[in-house]
Amino acid sequence: MMNKDPYHEEHDDIRELLRKFENLKAGRAQGFLYEDAFERIVDHFDEQDDIVHAMEAVDIGLEQYPYSSSLIIKKADLLIASRKYREALEYLDRAAAFDNTDIDIYILRTDAYLALDEQEKAVELLEEAIGFFEGEERINLLFELSDVYDDYEEFDKIFDCLKLILEYEPNNEEALYKICFWTDFTGRNEESIRIHQAIIDEYPYNELAWFNLAAAYQSLKLYEKSIDAYKYAIVINEKFDFAYRNMADAFIRIRRYRDAIEALQKVVELARPEDVIYEAIGHCYDKISYYAMARLYYRKASHLNQDDAKLYYNIALTYMNEQSWGKAVKYLETALKISRLNRDFNLAMGDCQKHLGNIEEAIRHYRVIVDVKPKAISGWEALIRCLYEAGYMEEAEAYISQAFQYLGKKPVLAYYRSAVYFAMGQTKEGLLQLQGALAESPALVRKFISLDPAHLQVPAVAELLAQSRRMRKP
Prior knowledge:
mainly alpha
């Protein structure tokens, strides 16, 4: 004969208890219930979110068992759920008079104090209670105290609570997970390293301790040590995808892009597809000039996140690196549909259109940049250079004047104005501008030369540059 299903057995049992409870309420003789039966009935209604009937059951239970600390505690719990916090505290005082060793009394008091915005009382209560309890109960109170400190924004004290938990129970997973976050948040990385090294000395196969040690090294930019620690975590648990993920970031920081790709590929194998992982793989291929592979992964990322304009921009940059301007334009158009005023997108589109000979289009995009952020020099430079290279000298001069109004006397603008004057045949004005710019910032003369190397063939320019070099020699 098969055993009865425990679930159905329990279900039948609670139905029988509820039947007896109804008989008790109706005053029938067969309605007697023991104390633990009332507890189960209250729990049943509570689990059904039926506070009204749960409260009715606990009140009837307390009529029969007025000294039951467990029923008094359940009454307090229901009062807290009903937002009657002061009344709940009175019931908890009654419960403590019968049995002050029940940890639920302290946890519920804490909840009530927090709801009343009396954090100081909650902290004082828990700090006192921690000394009364041992083992798992002490651990639970420390977690409770850490949550209070979180509400109170005492973040260093959260770290202290988790540190204590790990002293009592070094393999506590919840504490290990949480302390990793709070180490990063509080910046207590050196301390975290000491804590986790001590745990590893005692428990060398604790993968979370190795992971946390690696994360602390990573925060201190000790990337090689970080990578070594992540490798130990992976040896212990070869499916530890977060270790591979963080290790890949460390590899990227020290420009070991091929190693980063290998680690990120493991993340792809172990976890569900994520656009950020595909984007990171694309970035690594981009850095080692494998542009076709970079595009493949940027496209994979864009399929998962079609609203991320930066992914289309990244694809465009790979084409620009290959001087495939027309193909780059197609992706930049998509990026600009999502973010029309983005400076980087407009700058890239301006560069592509310039290389394709579409000067008016290039100018239009460069103008967007200076309109959006007129105090940034890069947009003005791109616009002025485009106008100069297209032979639009009067327009270039006009924009140089506008740029001076927004940026003040930037030497680079004087260099550009000098070049424009030379191109317009105004040699004297050009030399004066060049002389002033050389006096202000001789290093930026490269901007003047790169705009038009032919200026070096002008004897007066060559003499002025030679004179500037002589003056700078010690």
